Amino acid sequence: MITFSATLACQYDTPFSPFPAAQFTRGLAWLSHSGFDAAELCINDYAGVEVAALREALDRAGLGCTTIATGQARKRDGLTLLSAEKSVVRRTQERLFAHIDAAAQLGSHVTIGSLRATDLPLDTPQYMNELATALFPCVEYARRNGVVLILEALNRYEVCQLHSAQEMMDYMAFSDAPENVGVLWDLFHAGIEDADFSTAIATLGARLRHVHLADSNRGFPGYGHLPLDEVYTTLRLAGYQGAVSLECLCWPSAQTVIDEAGELIARLRRL
Question: What is the pTM of this model?
Answer without folding.
Answer: 0.98
